[in-house]
Amino acid sequence: MNSLETVAGARVSRRTLLKGAGALGVGVALAQAGALHEAAAAAQQQERLQDILDITVTTEHFGVTVLGGAIESNRQGNYNPRIPDNVIAILQAARAQEQFHLEFFQTLGGKPLTTTFHLPDPALLTNPTLFFDALQAQETREVAAQIAAFSTFTALKRPDLVKVSFQYAAEEAEHRLLANYAAGKRPANDLGFAPALYDTVAEFAADLRRLGFIGGSGPAITYPGPGRIDPTNVTNRTPDGPAVNCTAPAMPGMPNTGGGGARGSQDTLQVLGLLGLGAAAAGALARLAARDAARATARSHED
Question: Which domains does the chain have, with CATH numbers?
Answer without folding.
Answer: 47-222 (1.20.1260)
